[in-house]
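Working notes for the structural subgroup meeting. M.R. asked for a predicted model of this chain before we commit to crystallization trials. I am recording the input and output together here so anyone reviewing the notebook later can reproduce the run.

Input as submitted:
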Amino acid sequence: MRYTVIFIVAVCFTLVCGTAFADIMPVRSFTERQPKTHNSNAWGLVYSGAITENVSGKVNIHPITYQLNGITIAANVYTPAGYDPSKKYPAVTVAHPNGGVKEQVAGLFAQSLAEAGYIAVAADAAYQGESGGMPRHTDIPFFRTEDIHGMVDLLTIYPGVDVNRIGMLGICGGGGYTLNAAKSDKRVKAVATLSMFNTGRVRREGYMSSQIRDIQERLKQASDARGKDSASGTVDFDSLTDEAINAIANDLYREGMKYYGKTHRHPNSTFEYTRSSLTELMSWDATDNIKLINVPLLMMAGSAADSLYLTEDAIEKATGTDDKELFLIPGAFHIQTYYVPEYVEKEIGKLKEFFGRTL
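Returned structure, recorded in token form:
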């Protein structure tokens, strides 16, 4: 009888888990897509110095879509000047910040890397931007990590990519998820972050540990929201209003409102996320098992950013690699590292040095 029970349990486990894991499918192909635009730029790009047209012999942008775990992902691939698909180039994935989209800072750094000779891809996260997935604005670590694995998948099949020279760059929340992806994705030879934001820790403890005392209360609210989502089909969202952000005495949210709401506004970018996402976010941490990263690691951050503590914590815990560096941008706040020319110039220069050495 005992063996019969074990057999039945094993069969059930295989059927259930086999079905679940069968849905995790790597990217096997991609198609060109027609970009949507809300401004005068043909691709809706909102950063300074953005490409305005594809010109033979120069850096070009290629809007594509691909399927990742049943969801359509929208991405932009940037190719170097004189790109020849019969040759081999190093390549880098670029993961956007929480609330951001590929047309903002992720696009700026992808284009800058292409100008330095790399094939670079910036993709909208699943459930966000132009990518598919419902409910919208879901922000769950598993999916955000899969987004980055999917970009690596894409690069392994993109014409001209040297699969032995693939790197990762993650910005803000995309930096935390990039660290998570790099723990297990050994196709990647070097990892860099800019103004890394450990979403799990911040959602759990509050920014700068401001909400430690009400963790259980907020988890209960998130659980109730998930129950409501299931029972009624309606979705509750958490978001930051202008009033709430103006009341916060830190640079990240205050500067973020200016960047996302005014200077680099894009209609697909939002501060909203589903409240039920907190049930996963609050029990997750970008630094868990970070010692599994055993490739060169560069972490860049503004010296004046109040988010710096997140980067310092992560790089201290990254004991699996001896080739690691904390690179500070003197005087820069978190959001300023995204667009202020003198800061971006320093960051791109450092990335060229880092990836040039490691890829």
